[in-house]
Amino acid sequence: MIIGLVGLALSLGALPATAADGAPKATAMKATAMEVTAVKATATRGMAESTQWGPEVRTFTGWAFDVCRAPSLDSMERWRASNYQALGVYFGGRGRACRHQPELNRTWTRQVNTMGWGMLPVYVGSQSPCVAAQHKKGVRIGKYPWGQGVQEARDAVRRAAALAIARYSPLYLDMEAYNYRKPKCAHTTLTFVRAWNREVRRYGYVPGFYSSADSGVRHMEIARRAGVRDLPSVMWFARWNRKPHLYREPSLWKYAWHPQRRIHQYAGNVKERHGGRTMVIDRNLVSAPVARIG
Fold this sequence. Notes:
Layout: H1 5-14, E1 17-18, E2 24-25, H2 33-36, E3 59-66, H3 73-78, E4 86-92, H4 106-115, E5 118-123, H5 145-162, E6 170-174, H6 183-202, E7 206-212, H7 213-225, E8 234-238, E9 262-274, E10 277-289
Parallel strand pairs: 3-4, 4-5, 5-6, 6-7, 7-8, 8-9
Antiparallel strand pairs: 1-2, 3-10, 9-10
Helix pairs in contact: 5-6
């Protein structure tokens, strides 16, 4: 059933948060009417995925870094001296900044996996029509967001498989900050993301979503509260210069995307040196799925 604007606004305002003991809890955030128009979709009453992962999904809790270009195997061996035990790898997508990835191949993923590293595969595909970053405006979603989302999901699965990233692995869609308050833009973006998620799931992978906490992540939370289907299974939110945390993010309801369904990117573009090797990285606290390497 298509929910009208007034009905959807009421449902967003009326959905009660629930405390751990089942008692109603005051909701910390309310969606504006403009935000509500971004979430016109068919759906049942919104609930975040909150069940435990099955044994097929490999999860990790701890510290991770992500870096634009996959490091050499020597660097990965040296960085075992750090507190990090997982890393984000930008494995594909037409919006990827570091397209030249000389180290990234099946041998690399298998050897890094053998070293004991968890892997967070990131796909930087088409970006929102109202993306903020100037350098991403050339790769915006086109006129047919659903079909484009499906095609890019298939590309993500194909590229993941080529790197020995097996089924039941997460694939994290990177959607850089955008103005989700613009209804037409928000609708296009959400349509693309939903199509990408559905197709990734159809191939047996776990769809994740990376974005800024105050734009894409908040948009997904509004959609969740409206009951929209085909949302990401894991939320990777960027909020820099804050203490690392997983369940105190103001843009997300505490019990949404829980348990082991969150990553907090809490610092970016910082230099670190371990084992005599320096890299410029983003820092993350993780409780989420990591790749299964075949």
